[in-house]
């Protein structure tokens, strides 16, 4: 199933890129944002989907390694719970994931999340500027700004993905989700994800309000 999703993702987004370049729709700011999203989605199909299948197999299809049983006699005290079921210390499934593998998966996962959030954020701001000042909005200027902001977004995404190599490290944080873990990661998440998401959500709400107000003015 992951293979199907991976191939479909790459093919579909490759078609999007071909259409954009053939029809020269990438010359505007909106086209630049869509191309950035398409490239990020291709990265998902090439790296994240295949490694997701690999990570899932490492967790669910690996033979368990159980240690020797131990049944220590314990005299229970007041309020203590005691049963005679033997304790079976077993192997840790996380030992199936070596650090180079986690670094590889974590790098592309972190880069994809950061790039997608930042691209959507700057695209939302661009649309907000257009709706707010449609008469003075310059397509040429907005295209130039879009190229700069998308370039910066890719650079920031790469930096965010590299930081855990030197500060913390990549690890499994939820099921097969690989991201950086450690004390510094909290600040990294706030800068890379939380703040841009808040800007995106607030900008989306303001954009919706402005759009409704403009449509009402046109009706009157």
UniProtKB/TrEMBL annotation:
Domain of life of the organism encoding this protein: Eukaryota
Transmembrane segments: 6-23, 35-56, 101-123, 144-166, 186-210
Any one GO cellular component localisation term in the record: plasma membrane
Main location: membrane
Membrane topology: Multi-pass membrane protein
PROSITE patterns linked to this entry: G_PROTEIN_RECEP_F1_2 (PS50262)
G-protein coupled receptors family 1 profile domain residues: 12-220
Keyword terms: Cell membrane, G-protein coupled receptor, Membrane, Receptor, Transducer, Transmembrane, Transmembrane helix
Subcellular location: Cell membrane
Keyword Membrane listed: yes
InterPro entries recorded: GPCR_Rhodpsn, GPCR_Rhodpsn_7TM, TAAR
GO molecular function list: G protein-coupled receptor activity
Protein name per the record: G-protein coupled receptors family 1 profile domain-containing protein
Provenance organism: Ciona savignyi (Pacific transparent sea squirt)
